Amino acid sequence: MNIRQLLDQRLTAALQAAGAPVASSAIIKPSTRPEFGDYQANGVMAAAKQLKMNPRELAAKVLEQTDLSDIAEQVEIAGPGFLNIHLKTDWLAAALPTNTQLDAVEPQTIVVDYSSPNLAKEMHVGHLRSTIIGDAVVRVLEFQGHHVIRQNHVGDWGTQFGMLLAHLADLQAQGGELSMQLADLEAFYRESKQRFDADPAFAERSREYVVKLQSGDPECLALWQQFINISLHHCEVAYQELGVSLTRQDVMAESAYNDDLAKVVSDLQAAGLLTESEGAQCAFMDEFKNKDGSITPLIIQKTGGGYLYATTDLAAIRYRSRVLQADRVLYFVDVRQSLHFQQVYTLARKAGFAPASMSLEHMAFGTMLGEDGKPFKTRTGGTVKLADLLAEAQERAYQLVSAKNPELAEAERREIAHIVGIGAVKYSDLSKNRTSDYVFSWELMLSFEGNTAPYLQYAYARIQSIFRKAGNLEQGQSSIQLLESSERALGLKLLQFNEIIDSVGREGQPHHLCNYLYELAGHFMAFYEACPILREDVPTEIRASRLQLAQLTADTLETGLSLLGIGVLERM
Ligand code: ARG
Which stretches make up the Arginyl tRNA synthetase N-terminal domain (predicted)? Predict the structure, then answer.
């Protein structure tokens, strides 16, 4: 059990024993300043208010109901009724060796819908956020022991495939290699769109292709399938480059739900949830009433019978509940789709597609912006391709590494540049609160100072160099001792790893882990300044203790970065 849970359990029980209502909680938080102790309990005030009691008196009663003397050296009542908890240093030191071993959780089945690009075009930077953040959360959940099912809900269906197939069929008629023709999907899409807009005959043929595709014409399906395979291959190249854990097995495309859509509509109709409006089938739900009293409907079927994005998402929810038996479904999708998800979730609940026991969570993220504060674009205003961005990251990292370590062999510099460059791109995204927009800056993300991947990778490499130097010294045996204040602060921080993992798994916010690792590295640097390790006059058992602290720090950095999908280096 992590420290926070332990204190929460004991103090919440004490709070209730002191007469507070059963729903009250001690609300334990790490203290923000050392003089407030290591942890604070903030829940007494709210309980006192409910009991119409003086909060400091209630706090005193709480302390009578519990004995924390095995773990805390002092607990004081502060301000209006906070409890400041000063933990025992010996207790911290003894708890340390197990700091990256997680507490057992009740394993849940968690479906994570992420990356999910549209296959008509090349993956662009907009899908980068979903891919990177989703993959980090997936890793954390698996590390906690949950059963995670990745779902790459790629867009592979819809009217734009008509024009793409019509254009592709023409190129095929001229001969040539398909994968060559589709080497640049972005250009291919542009050409098709140009023809579609300029040539009415081509537009007509495009529409015929849509009808043929949707009615299951074998030739048309075969062509479509080839297109999808090549487009998916482009995605896989990007996943590999990024070190993202998605594979072909995780693809559950929009088209996979095709056969369920008619049933979704008829079930919604039977439940009385749909209304016809201008020929379309719509759900008007009171929850989505606007200020003027009108309701924003969710359109389920278009005039003429076509299905929509929402129809597929409803089918997917039913599948995730009935077949995958999910306890939680997490959607890592742009915040601009919030209304869509709120409407889909609400309708799914009403229709009984999603039981109350299955939680549906839109893990929304903001837009990636350029340094000018506008959506991230190429210099000429086009969308930035993911592949180009990743190539540039590695090139820039290569220049930095070569300037820093000109003596390293070319191949080693390339290898370092890959890990640093990709790590920097991922970390700069992961370290921001995902719900806000974020500014993409090469200079900031590749800096060796501040809250960046290179800084953390460098901190790790630096600890490895301590071990290389320590190799020749007499090491000695000792349990961990936290003698200096910087040592104690590092020890406490190490013990908080567990709590952070817990919160990332719950909230899907990897920036908590980033901030934690950054602070951990800072505590290590302060410890390393204040507490000599290798100096000759350091007694062997103190050296042994400090080397263990260094080892735990390195392990925690490595584990934490690997959960973010970022590699470390032995030297850099
Ligand atoms: N393909 C969509 C897009 O690029 C994202 C899909 C997200 N997942 C979902 N179940 N709707 O905008």
Answer: 1-87
- Complex ipTM tops 0.95: yes
Atom 11 of ligand 1, residue of closest alpha carbon: 313
Last residue of a domain, one of 215, 230, 247: 247
Residues with CB under 6 A from ligand 1: 113, 116-118, 153, 155, 313, 316, 331, 333
455-512 pLDDT, tens digit per residue, is 999 999 999 999 999 886 666 678 899 999 999 999 999 999 999 999 999 999 999 9
Out of 123, 324, 333, mutate this one to test ligand 1's pocket (max ligand atoms within 8 Å of CB): namely 333
Q: Whose CA is nearest to atom 4 of ligand 1?
A: 117
Give the chain's domain count: 4
The whole-angstrom separation of Cα 23 and Cα 25 is 7
Q: How far apart are the C-alpha atoms of 19 and 174, rounded to whole Å?
A: 83
pLDDT, tens digit (0-9, with 9 covering 90-100), for 313-348: 999 999 999 999 999 999 999 999 999 999 999 999
* Domain CATH number, residue 70: 3.30.1360.70
Residue nearest to ligand 1 atom 8, measured at CA: 153
In angstroms, what is the span from residue 309 Cα to ligand 1's centroid?
Answer: 8
Quick check: pTM over 0.90? Answer: yes
Mark which of 445, 465, 481 sits at the end of a domain: 445
CA-nearest residue, atom 5 of ligand 1: 116
Q: pLDDT digits over 343-401, tens only? A: 999 999 999 999 999 999 999 999 999 988 888 888 788 878 888 899 999 999 999 99
Asked if residue 415 is part of any domain, the answer here is yes
Atom of ligand 1 nearest to the CA of 341: 11
Rounded CA separation 271/351 (Å): 7
Distance of CA 130 from the midpoint of ligand 1 (Å): 10
Q: Distance, CA 106 to ligand 1 centroid (Å)?
A: 30
List Cβ neighbours of 399 (8 Å cut-off, separation of 6 or more).
none
Q: What is the 3-state secondary structure (H, E, C) of 358-388?
A: CEEEECCECCEECCCCCECCCCCCCCCEHHH
Task: State the alpha helices, DSSP H only, in 66-216.
Answer: 89-95, 125-143, 160-173, 178-181, 185-198, 200-214
Q: Tell me, in angstroms, the distance from the centre of ligand 1 to residue 192's CA.
A: 23
Q: Is 116 left (phi over 0), alpha (psi -120 to 50) or beta?
A: left
How far apart CA 458 and CA 447 sit, in angstroms, is: 11
